[in-house]
């Protein structure tokens, strides 16, 4: 937060890291072992316990996690993978890494998550998997998704980049599907700067992903520079350089210990926003669910543009002029040149996703927000509504 010309500026995000994380990273540096090692494996153990998963495999990013997951289930060139058009490009690009086709799916209007009914219509004989994305940390309708996956023989990989901690009908995200991928990017609910995690209950898949995250080298090869290690190693397949480092894991362990408190702080901010905005006819607040818990990674506000004389872009500009940071999550994939040029997608292909994108934006919701910062956001949004309401 800062004061500039009597206007309080509120950034879109500030990472909730401090001296504890700095000390944990410093301890690793002083230990002399910086890359994947004991801290990483402890982080995996604690993360698996936290979400109720049998296995957790730490990696360099959620993108890496999704790639490893698709490789582990045997996605091949020519296969098709279903995923929502409203997501970050990483969800789609990893499908392309394996020569498969990302088959985009429209979204439900309430949650902006993948629409299971639209997904069913896009299944072909080449469809092998489905990647539901828990947008903003709101869990998808997983019972329907798992039902259609079971009916059509599809593998389910959850993109939970936004979803720690979140749950669906009492089960934590990370313990629902065959594979789940998390993100620890700088803006996420748990951060290691960069990083990610895979969870699974499948022993064979876990072993495959562990091997492939480090060049396809047998699992214990990391020890070859330690006192009890050996110089000898074997390469079992053409793998990737996707391992997490102990410096990152040390930060992650501290963050994991704070995860519940950080989630509570986000919930409190969301509650204040919803209380303030739900009475404004020009605004649509996030949907409330009784059967699932959101992580509140994002607070996505939508405009009822028929009640305003300006659109979303101008509304965001007005907030910026008032010192409020915002973002838009996400530009649907089918509107980007790559997906149009490579796969032939066009504007108009996914009308619900386009309609929601045109009126949605995300407000600041970081755990260290002060009461004054929260109030500044509420006041600024209210001022814009009042100034441009019909």
Give a brief description.
The protein is of the alpha/beta class.
Describe this entry's structure for a reader:
A hairpin with a 2-residue loop joins strand 8 (167-168) and strand 9. The two termini are 32 Å apart. The strands form four sheets. The chain has a seven-stranded mixed beta sheet, with helices on both faces. It has a three-stranded antiparallel beta sheet with strand order 9-8-13, with no helix packed on it. Strands 12-14-15 form a three-stranded antiparallel beta sheet, with no helix packed on it. The longest helix is centred in the last third of the chain and has 32 residues, at 246-277. The protein has 390 residues and is an alpha/beta fold. It is globular. It has two domains: 19-256, Type I PLP-dependent aspartate aminotransferase-like (Major domain) (Aspartate Aminotransferase, domain 2); 259-388, Aspartate Aminotransferase, domain 1 (Alpha-Beta Complex). The protein contains twelve helices and 15 strands.
Described by the principal axes of the CA atoms, the overall outline is: globular
Q: What Rg do the Cα atoms give?
A: 22 Å
The helical percent reads 25-40%
Report the biggest beta sheet as strand number plus sense, adding barrel if it closes.
7 strands, mixed
- The fold-level CATH name of the largest domain is Aspartate Aminotransferase, domain 2
In DSSP terms (H or I, runs of 4 or more residues), the helix count works out at: 12
Structural class: alpha/beta
- The whole-number mean of residue pLDDT values reads 96
Give the SSE order as H and E letters.
EEHHEHEHEHEHEEEEEHHEEEHHHEH
Number of strands: 15
Euclidean distance between termini CA atoms: 32 Å
Structural domains: how many = 2
Unreliable segments (pLDDT under 50, ≥5 consecutive)?
Answer: none
Assign the CATH class of the largest domain: Alpha Beta
Beta fraction of the residues?
5-15%
User: Per CATH, which architecture of the largest domain?
Assistant: 3-Layer(aba) Sandwich
Within CATH, the superfamily of the largest domain carries the name Type I PLP-dependent aspartate aminotransferase-like (Major domain)
Main β-sheet, spatial strand arrangement: 3-11-10-7-6-4-5
